[in-house]
Amino acid sequence: MKEKRGAREDGSGRKSGEVLSGSGVSAQSRNSGQQVIQYEKYHLSLTEGLFALAKGIGLCGLVAWTFYRSLVAFLILLPAGLCYPFYERRRLKEKRILTLASQFKESMVILASALSAGYSIENALRVSQEELVTLYGEEGMITREFSCMNDQIRMNRSVEQVLEDFAQRSGIEDIQNFSEVFSVAKRSGGDLSGIMRHTAEMIRDKMQVKEEIRTMTASRKFEQKIMNLIPFFIVFYVDGASPGFFKQMYQTMAGRVLMSGCLAVYLISVWMAGRILEIEV
Question: Domains in the chain and their CATH numbers?
């Protein structure tokens, strides 16, 4: 059962559901007083935004100098650089979700062990939180989520509701599957601890496979980043060793057209390399 989220005010004077700046943090946690995060939303801080903007402008300058040696080309490319913070926001959001998924996998190991020891799901969540504090500290993402869930359970919210709320905010398929299986198991009235233990082990194994794939492709992604810089190094080296070698490329129409074609091929190659390394499980 989903509860309607109203616009109540908490003790700090903020309205319930209001999103704070800096990474999509919401000011309410079902009356528990803790901050919760909308993981599907990421708000760049001022420092992150300025750094991303500077990086985008710098990339535009590098491309304009390498392929055109023209201020006009830089001004034409500048809007693309100004859009770079949007790409950076998506990258940081995905990085945060991957971190949460990794921590959730470890929490499944701890939760499965607690259920195997005979704890109820409520007590297993509480015991798991204590173990997670040791692993990730009080400020770890999954530690805060378990603390938030335990606080809400003590306020007489059902485990089904708090898991559903966490699953919706996380945007992670495995957490959503875990929540759905728990809801079905609770309604069916079967061996809840056994079903949850088995489900936790299956999700843990699936996430372990994902992590192994990311580990195996990490070196290839690093190589891709190096290869993305090779064309710039080649141009800098040749231009430094033989000044004027590329003069015709920057001062004639045929040269500009050829360099534009090279830039298009380069961008397509970078895009294709990124797509090849994106392996879905």
Answer: 95-210 (1.20.81)
